[in-house]
Amino acid sequence: MHALDVQKVSHWFGANRVLWDVNLQVAAGQIVAMVGPSGCGKSTLLRAILGTHPPREGVILADGIRIDGPTRHVGIVYQDYALYDFLTARKNVAFGPMLDETNPAFRLFRFPAWRRLRRRHLAEATALLEKVGLERAADRYPSEMSGGMRQRVAIAQALVMRPKILLLDEPFGALDEATREELQLMILSLAEENRLARQAGGQPPHTILLVTHELNEALYVAERVIGLSQFHEDGARGATIVYDKASPVFRPDQAKDVEALHKQREELRAAVFDPENLKKHDRYVTFWKDHADKR
Amino acid sequence: MIREPIQLRTRVILGIASVCLLLVAYGWLSHRQHRANPKDTTVPGLRQFVQGWGRLVHADAAGHVWIIEDARATYGRLLAGLVCGVALATLVGMAMGCFAAAEAFFHPPLSLLAKIPPTAMLAVYFVLVGTEMKMYVAMISLGIFPTLAQAIHQAAKKDVSDHAICKAYTLGASHFEAIWNVVFRQILPRILENVRLQVGPAMVFLIAAEWAVSDVGFGYRLRIQSRLLNMNVVYTYLVILAATGFAMDGALSYVRRKCCPWFGQ
Questions:
Q1: What is the tens place of the pLDDT at every residue in A108-117?
Q2: Global pTM value
Q3: Is B163–A80 a contact, with Cβ atoms under 8 angstroms apart?
Q4: A-chain residues within 8 Å CB-CB of B181?
Q5: In angstroms, what separates the C-alpha of B133 from chain A's closest C-alpha?
Q6: Contact status, residue A236 vs residue A193, Cβ threshold 8 Å
Q7: CATH assignment of the domain containing B144
Q8: What fold is seen in the domain A4-73+165-294?
Q9: Least Cα separation, residue B250 to chain A (angstroms)
Q10: How far apart are CA B74 and CA B157, in angstroms?
């Protein structure tokens, strides 16, 4: 069963066809980047997967569970962080477990049990903040943190829920270059955790779909890159996935192989961003076929 | 230069100077009036004030201590009216900010009510609920309700992003938790700030109502004593009302700082 299964999804607003026959399967533990021209429908697809704007046609499943509204199975990290201003970093991270594992009646009427559970949630939040390098800022409010720190908190806030799939919506778009690189390394360290879990015969813990407009970032951070575009033979019907290939896999401690990235970036540019290249879109959609051939 | 900052010391000295200037101007005015008419009560001197304070704290012929009776009546009405008004406005404002149907339902009547001066509605409350406590509570709570509900509505709608609400659902929140744990907590400082702004109007509505129909309370005493030109009592009551406003404002500001330290100054 796939962690994410997008089946024949189409969406339109009046006469404006946005998505057409989008099919996407993401296996558990994959880190996938999605790129595409501005206005091609990346956000529409992301909102459909998140459940806030269900598609007009098609089905979306997260680990077999049909998505028809926002749910704890699909996590989200936004570009604007969307942290809760009234909570410290630690409490922001512990907010999810509180909402997920308790309800207002429990917190009000079973106060001693709630206090015990709360201690556990806060300890879990502290551990996650240490993992993202923010242990010293745990008691700061979002307004007292830099953009990079806030984004780390937002990622920890999403990871603590262990969602079936985590959506990152241009998460590093508002950050400076140095911070962006630090956070890219953080995503690579999550990929490394997946690799180690696979090696140990376990279930990889992180399945991520990253939406970005930076091609280098997509190729560097993800192990698979998909391109959503309206520049294909049936473009009038809406955007669909026109590119789906594996990308070079880097480890956090490994230097970036610019040559390898450059070659695939040019291919990606031609396949996804070139309005003159109205190709048959299955030509570049070869990830699962290549995967099967490798096996 | 415009907006050039000044030192704290200068700020404090200027503040004290303005109050001193006010007191000196009053003293000069009082002295001038008493030179022209030694029995003048319109701008009382210190001795007349002391006499007035004696009347406030000692029982009159009927055995009533004015200051205690008036304070008890006025503060009771003010507190009850404010609590009811704030509770109602918070409930309706939050509902309007969270649910489009509630917004569509409440927006037209609220817009209309906000345009009617609450003191002009006195006759309506008088007819509908009589002259007892209920009338004062109705006057204050319905007086502050439209403005406060509209402010809370705007805060709930604009100060809480769709992303924050959507994320709460992805963290496992129910609808109630999204409203209570996210929207309400995010706008709590705005609610407290707006309540602070409504304390002044609430006192205006109450004093106006007491002035018109009451037989006890600050508004009633101001009406009677101003007719008798006992300005030593009138000015004293005005100072008490100002002190009440300051105290309530300070208390709400303290609550805001304690409950919402993240909101800053």
A1: 999 999 999 9
A2: 0.89
A3: yes
A4: 95, 99
A5: 34
A6: no
A7: 1.10.3720.10
A8: Rossmann fold (3.40.50)
A9: 22
A10: 35
